[in-house]
Specification:
alpha+beta; Double Stranded RNA Binding Domain; 4-stranded antiparallel β-sheet
Length: about 150
């Protein structure tokens, strides 16, 4: 499973003159602005909030992996911040594994409370610990850079 946390975002001008942004893969993240740049910037914040919320409130809300959409008048790519992308990756791997937090803790040889921190988007966790968690599921975290 390759997870790249980049969302396709469409920006369109509405009749009121404002620009509205939405991401088909994350329909609860919407934003608007006086111009495209502002709508796009606000959409980045909306996507962060939506992904954090889906991780935080867990089993009742699915976290669909993103995909880039090209069906809008204007399409942009919004990437999650690296720390949140890492948390989302490990969260998806954990959810699809079917393991409990206790079972994950046993496999990582740590206390279950530490696993809760690993999965918590509001708790800073080192890359070494996040990679350790990914490896339990047969994956490796990969770090890269893209031009901005």
């Amino acid at each position: 499973m390759d997870l790249q946390w980049t969302y396709g975002v469409a920006v369109r001008r509405e009749e009121d003159g404002r620009f509205h942004a939405y991401a088909p893969a994350m329909p609860d993240a919407i934003a608007s602005g006086e111009d495209e740049t502002e709508a796009f910037r606000e959409m980045g914040k909306a996507l962060v909030a939506a992904v954090r919320g889906r991780i935080k409130f867990g089993p009742d809300l699915e976290l669909p992996p993103p995909w880039v959409s090209g069906d809008a008048e204007r399409s942009h790519a919004v990437r999650l911040p690296a720390e949140l992308a890492t948390k989302a990756t490990v969260y998806i791997l954990w959810r699809t594994s079917g393991l409990s937090k206790v079972a994950l803790a046993e496999r990582m040889a740590i206390h279950e409370r530490e696993v809760r921190r690993v999965l918590d988007p509001d708790h800073a966790t080192g890359l070494d610990r996040m990679d350790e968690a990914a490896r339990v599921f047969g994956h490796q975290l990969v770090v890269g850079a893209v031009a901005v």
